[in-house]
Amino acid sequence: MSHLNVDKARYNMIEQQVRPWEVLDRRVLDVMAKTKREEFVPEAWKNLAFADIEIPIGAGQVMMPPKLEGRLLQVLQIKPTDRVLEIGTGSGYLTACLAQLGESVVTVELHPELSEQARQKLSAAGLNNITLRTGNAANGWDQDGPFDVVAVTGSLPEENSKFAKLLRDSGRLFVVTGKAPVMTATLVTRNSDRDFHTEYLFETSVPPLEQVGAGEKFVF
What we know:
Elements: H1 3-18, H2 26-34, E1 55-58, E2 61-63, H3 66-75, E3 83-87, H4 93-101, E4 104-109, H5 112-124, E5 130-134, E6 147-152, E7 167-179, E8 182-190, E9 196-204
Parallel strand pairs: 3-4, 3-6, 4-5, 6-7
Antiparallel strand pairs: 1-2, 7-8, 8-9
Helix pairs in contact: 1-3
């Protein structure tokens, strides 16, 4: 794609996919508009970098569609002082957006090859407030916390508290739960040590997080 076509495709992605999905937060739209999504997409898929599809990135993983990425970023209401944990680095595109909205990001990827590819792309983008970890965070992450924001990029089969417990008070967790074809995007807010508020946002479908074990369910 030419530079002009890329700019037009990015504009159309925002105006025809992201905004119509009720993503109206100016900070989120600005970050998605200036982050070069095409640089995080595998070469074979660059012509579809801005399409409303999941894009394969290797190791059996995919990038979320832009509209879902935008909705996730908006729901979390990330402040410039927030410490963010991302479970599932993937391509690094969402990581880049999180890093520009918050103070810092710790991102954990199960597959070393994806983590290394993301590291190179994030470095090329000039983002230096990101810590990349390689490991299995499917059942929580004991390092680096607590966090103001946790974003889980793969789905869980059912609700549990393992990621919410990583939050500080007033912290927010985005996670998708359920089984295909219909899953539920959920926002969990930690009000105090034992007080969590769960809000069910919208129906969607996201590939499952790998190596998920049983977790402790929420008790209300």
